[in-house]
Structures are given as C-alpha cells and as structure tokens.
Write a structure and sequence with these properties.
Pfam families: Peptidase_S41. This protein is of the alpha+beta class and 745 residues long. The chain contains 20 helices and 36 strands. It is 28% helix and 22% strand.
Length: 745
C-alpha cells in the first residue's frame, strides 16, 4: 500500500488512538515535499488573480466608482493622492463614459487595485453536512446549529462570494466549534482625524491629520460546546473576507489549510463593485507581533498535487481525504523566512507641486467624483442637511455629457453647483490657476430684505443705500436666483451674502440698475475699481458711546480690520472698566484669540463648544471623537457687567464659535440678525485642473450639545437696517443695543 493510500485510510484512526501529532506531521511533510508545506505560489504573481468577486451594487455606477476611488485615494496602498486622481482623469475622458471599461482601466493604472467581473452568486443559508463525526460547514446566512456528536470541523471557503454578511457568517462558523476566542491579526491601516489639508502642509495647518498605525481586530467570539480541530478548504480564488479568515486562523495555528495557497494581499482588500465590473482595493497590511504576515500562506495539503482535483464548491473531496485532514491536531507555525514584499498604506501629504490649471471633460468628471467621495467620507452634517450628494453628482455628470468641458470656468461652475447641496457656509471652490480679475466693483454690499444694498462705496456714482436692481439688463432677482443655485450656505441670509459677493469681481465695465432711497431707479456703467472694498458692517473703533447719547456705555468692535490682536482687545477692555454696559460687535470676523477674550468676559467656569472630529481607523471603523472643555475666568482686565452681542449674516465660523460660548454661558443678550450657522475648521481638497474645494471638516455643537449647523446664533432681539438707515449712516443694530442696555427692553 502506498504511503498516500495508507494516510487516507488510516489518518482518522491514528488521531482517535491519540498518536502523537509529530508522526502525522512527518508523513505530511514527506508527502508534500519537505518543508514547503504544499504549493506556495510566488509572491510576485498578480495577487488579484486569486481574489473572488462579489455581487454588483444597487448604487448608480458613477456613485460606486466614486466610492471605489475614495477607498484607493484615502486608504489605499498607492503612493499619493495625485497618482489615483490622474488615473481617474484618464479613464473618464471622452464624450461619455463606459463605467465598466473605466473600472478596468483604472485598476490597471492604480497600485493596489484590480478589476474583476461581478459575481451572480449571493450568500446562501449556512449548511452543515455530517460525515461521521466530521462537521463540514458551508458558511452562510442564518443560524449554524452543530450536532453534538461532531468531533472535528471542516469549513469550506471555496467560491464564497464577496457578499455582504460573509464576514459575520465566517465568524459564526469558527465560533460554534470553539470554546476560546480565536485571535486575529492586526491590520496596519491609514487613520484619518478629519481630512488632512491637501493644500497647506500639516505642520502649518495641524487641525487634521493622517497617520499609519496598527488597528487591533477583535478576536472571533467562541460560542461552541467544545474546541474542535478545524480544517479550511481553500480554492484558487477567495473572497477578501474568506482569505482574511484563512490567514487569521492559519497564523493563529487554529486551522490547517487544504486546497490552494492563500494570497494575503487578497485578505487585505475590499470588494468595490461598480456595475458589471468591480474592483478589489487593497487597504491594509496584516501583521502580528513578529511583523507582516507572509505574502502567501501555503496550503498544508494540496489536493491537486495528488491528482484528487481542486473540487468545486458544489462537491467535496472524498470522505477519506476529509477524515485525514480533520484530525491532524494543531498545525505548526507558518514559515516566515521569505521576505515580505507588500507595502503598508503610506501617510498622505499635501501636494507640494500643484497640478496645472487646465480643463477637459475627464478633469471635470474626476473632480466631481473626488469631491463626492471626499464629502461622503468626511463631511459631518448629512444628518442635518440631508444626503443629496448622489443625485447632485449624477446631475453634474449629465451636464458634462451634454456640453463638453473645455474651459476651467466650466469645471468651476460644475463644482459650485455640486457644493450647493451640502448647505455648508464653508463650501467654496477656487480655480487657483486662473488669473485675478481686472478689477472690482468698488462697494461693500449688505442684504436688506433679500436685496443687495450698497453699504459702503468708493465709487462716486454709486451711493450707500442704493439697491441693486439689475446687472447688464438682467433683473437682480433672476441673477441672484441663478447664483444661489450655485452657492452653498447653511442659512438663507448667508447664502444671499455669499451669492452677492460674485458681483464684486469685474473683467470689464458693467451696467447696474440702482434704486435710490427716493425710489428712483437709474442705470450706471461702472468701471473696474483697483481695490476690493472689504471689512465688517461697521468700522467704528472701540470706545465710549457718548457720541450716540450713551456716555455710560462702552463699545468694542471685534472685527479683525478694527481690532487685530489680543493685546488691542485687552487695552479696549481696560478702557471699558466702570461702564454700565458693554456692546461687543461680532458682525465681522474676529482677529483675537477667542478663549482668552471669553475668560475675561465670563466670570465663572464655562464650557467651550463641542468640537467633534470625524475619525477613520482604516476604511471600516468610523466615529466622531471630541468633547467640550471647561474654561476658567481670567482677570486684569475683565468685565462682569451687562453685555450686548451684535451678530449678523457675516458672523461666521470663528465669529460664531465666540458667540456660541458667550450665549452658552448665558452671558450676553444677542441683538441683530441670524448668523451664518457654520462653524468648524475647513478641509481643503486639491483637485486635478488646480481646483481647490472647501467644506466644513468637523461637527460643532453648542456647549450644551445641541445642534448648531444651520441654526446659528439666533438674536434675542431682531434688528435690521433699511436702505434709508444705511443712506443716513444710522447703525440700526447698535442703536437698538444702546436702547436695550439703557432700558432693559
């Protein structure tokens, strides 16, 4: 009788008689070629050839492609953002896109990505076939009852699809045959604390970061009545979850591998279907205390070596083969002498060399997909504003198909329209490579009852209080409606404010319709002005309000154009000592360090706003991390008297953060108009064509944990200017603050 036949006939009886594992191991070593332990493929072979696809997705193909690119870009093993982005540009060029072809060509160009045809198979109900005392388990959906007389288990991993629920099915399969948790390898993955700024180096803007580190994975829970010996049947191609399961169990010496070797890169990938094609995207490197797992985990017993065939998932090897494999005892350690060639995901950096400013349909499509994918992963307010980015992406891609993109301005406009759906006052888009305008409309505008009104003017023919009624013959209401459809904001007032800013840049003369406070409309041709008119609604300096009939009240303008630093604030606050009331004007953007100012204005312990960072520990683990923190008061100088806080549509971000804490501490009465409802540090996304897209990168809540985004600072007392007030130089909001501090009403 040959040694093979002897093993197949008597392997189970040896195990039952309690023969030492060393005897059987020696036989297997002889049969499989000494220390090679089966047929290990060269690690240089293309790992994707050994991956098993999963089903397609119900997502539209562009949305699915965006998700796949997002995985490769933010979590993949490729060297840079730029490599993945430019590959996306190349495969999306042309009059239209075949998304399956695009997925194939994209995988060919991006390291750590490969394309496969989707599988029609779904995850079937779990099954257990008893062959004597051996339980042959086919993982699947539902419960997995194990007969009490089972003495060994063989888990069949062959041709399991990369379908949702597979990882849980595998966990159930090992759980029912284990009484102790089964350890799993850690994964070295890229962690993101917010989206790292892609324009400014991290050392200059350290708000958000990314780094590469190990992420521990919870052991497989044990739910069984007894600890059974386990053998895994592996096929030439495995789904990522099945490959990961096999690597984990074999490295833990919890199971033998019978069949084909397992390529660890497959175990480190994610299945990302697009349409009829999908992609495996490698996002991790599996490691233990000794370092990275081998590139290939050899099969301990290769069925094909003995002419027994690999056997499809619909059939099993002979009962004698299964008996021989089932009672082998604990396997030896995996051979780790071969060098590991797989790289871990690298850290991502801001792009040091900006891309050229150029335009094409491929660039426009890629920019839209990248923007979509980045916000899908990092934008924190879908629970507040709703999730409309998929539909908006499809709308914008249809526009590209209808009108080929040949100019940077077209891409810019498409991205502005996409950003509108975010309802985020930080969502701006800049075409960084384009030349500056010839000049500017030399006015500062304010929103009065939904119309743009001139607040300040450096043009002799345009006056404060003038209401803009038209531009180049187009009614201003129509112009604003068009621009607001391309303007992202969280509150209506700030949306009108941001849209009206687009009147400022000029590349030639324009004719404006202007309605004076007398009700008469005139038409004025305006030439580009050399300077942009900037600043808050009021340029009043800090000091007494005696000129407005209130010598016992004091005023501090916190706008950075007026009060530029903490030292100037402390000087102004010192001058306010003894005042019966104080007006803080936060209708502009502050230049001071908010916490120091708040500690001098709030005489008791108070709390900051909640700053919640979106944190990804690899592509599968997401949570918000952050908190609100207590702050203690400061003195010399300080102020403990009544305070009115002025806010308006221009009060945004840092201005609002200051106001959130002041209102949270119930320290101020707020007068004016609702603020922008947008707070939190921005994320800058660098896109092909030298586009830069912004969005709010963290979730910010009031100190009591309540929602802020889209709510903003709501005044206790509404006050708003009219065109006549502006023309007469009356600061309606400041006058209302004086009235309140003097009368309490």
């Amino acid at each position: 009788m040959s040694s093979i036949r002897h093993l197949l006939l008597h392997g189970a009886s040896w195990a039952r008689r309690g023969q030492r594992q060393g005897r059987l191991t020696a036989v297997l070593l002889t049969l499989t070629g000494g220390g090679a332990w089966g047929q290990a493929q060269s690690s240089a072979e293309r790992w994707c050839d050994f991956g098993q696809a999963g089903p397609t997705t119900s997502l539209p193909a562009p949305v699915a492609m965006s998700a796949a690119h997002g995985q490769a870009r933010f979590f993949g093993t490729g060297p840079s953002y730029n490599d993945a982005d430019l590959a996306l540009v190349r495969v999306l060029e042309g009059a239209s896109v075949d998304w399956d072809v695009a997925a194939t060509h994209y995988a060919d160009r991006v390291e750590g990505v490969c394309a496969l045809d989707v599988s029609s198979k779904s995850l079937r109900p779990a099954r257990v076939l008893m062959l004597g005392a051996i339980a042959v388990i086919r993982p699947g959906t539902g419960d997995l009852p194990l007969p009490r007389h089972a003495r060994a288990a063989i888990i069949d991993l062959r041709e399991l699809p990369a379908a949702p629920g597979l990882e849980e099915a595998l966990a159930r399969a090992i759980g029912v045959v284990s009484t102790a948790p089964v350890t799993r390898l850690s994964e070295r993955v890229r962690h993101h604390v917010g989206m790292t700024d892609e324009v400014v180096p991290e050392e200059e803007y350290p708000i958000y970061t990314n780094y590469v580190d190990l992420r521990a994975r919870e052991p497989h829970a044990a739910t069984g009545r007894s600890e059974l010996p386990v053998t895994l049947l592996t096929g030439p191609a495995l789904a990522p979850a099945a490959a990961r399961f096999a690597v984990d169990l074999r490295m833990a010496r919890r199971a033998w591998l019978v069949g084909s070797p397992v390529h660890t890169a497959v175990a480190e990938s994610k299945w990302m279907p697009v349409r009829a094609r999908g992609m495996l995207v490698r996002t991790a490197r599996l490691e233990d205390a000794q370092g990275a797992a081998p590139d290939v985990i050899p099969a301990d017993l290769s069925l094909s070596r003995f002419g027994l065939g690999a056997a499809s998932s619909e059939s099993l090897p002979s009962a004698r083969v299964l008996q021989a494999a089932a009672f082998l005892g604990a396997p030896p350690p995996v051979d780790r002498t071969a060098p590991v060639t797989r790289n871990a995901p690298p850290k991502r950096f801001a792009l040091e060399v900006p891309p050229p400013s150029e335009a094409s349909s491929g660039i426009a499509r890629a920019d839209l997909l990248i923007f979509h994918g980045a916000t899908r992963l990092f934008f924190p307010y879908f629970d507040v504003v709703g999730d409309g980015i998929d539909g908006r992406l499809l709308e914008m891609l249809a526009s590209v198909d209808a009108v080929p993109v040949t100019q940077v301005a077209q891409t810019h406009r498409l991205l502005l329209r996409f950003s509108e759906v975010l309802q985020d006052g930080h969502a701006f888009v800049y075409a960084r490579g384009t030349p500056p305008p010839v000049g500017y409309f030399g006015v500062l505008l304010d929103d009065v009852a939904g119309e743009p009104v001139v607040l300040r003017s450096e043009l002799t023919e345009v006056h404060p209080g003038d209401t803009l009624t038209s531009i180049e013959g187009q009614p201003m209401s129509e112009w604003l409606a068009t621009e607001m459809a391309h303007t992202s904001a969280a509150t209506p007032g700030f949306k009108r404010e941001v849209a009206a800013r687009r009147l400022i840049n000029m590349n030639g003369p324009k004719t404006f319709g202007l309605r004076g406070v007398d009700g008469v409309t005139r038409f004025v041709q305006v030439q580009p002005h050399p300077r942009m008119v900037l600043g808050p609604p009021s340029l009043r300096e800090a000091g007494s309000l005696a000129d407005l009939g209130a010598p016992d009240l004091h005023y501090i303008n916190l706008a950075n154009q007026v009060l530029a630093n903490d030292a100037k604030f402390r000087t102004a606050l010192t001058a306010a000592q003894g005042a019966r009331g104080l007006v803080l004007d936060m209708r502009g953007y502050p230049g001071l360090e908010s916490y120091d100012a708040q500690r001098r204005l709030i005489p008791t312990t108070f709390f900051t706003s909640y700053l919640m960072y979106p944190v990804w520990a690899g592509p599968e683990s997401f949570e918000f991390q952050g908190d609100s923190y207590p702050m203690e008061p400061r003195s010399n100088p300080s102020y403990a008297g009544p305070i009115v806080l002025l806010v308006g549509p221009r009060s945004v971000s840092a201005a609002e953060d200051f106001s959130m804490v002041m209102t949270g501490a119930r320290r101020v009465t707020v007068i004016g108009r609702r603020s922008a409802g947008t707070n939190g540090a921005i994320s800058q996304l660098l896109l092909p064509g030298y586009m830069v897209a912004w969005f709010t990168g963290m979730k910010v809540l009031f100190p009591d944990g309540s929602r802020f985004h889209g709510v903003g600072i709501v005044p206790d007392i509404e006050a708003a200017p009219t065109a006549s007030d502006i023309a007469a130089g009356r600061d309606t909001e400041l006058l209302r603050a004086i009235e309140y501090l003097r009368t309490g009403q």
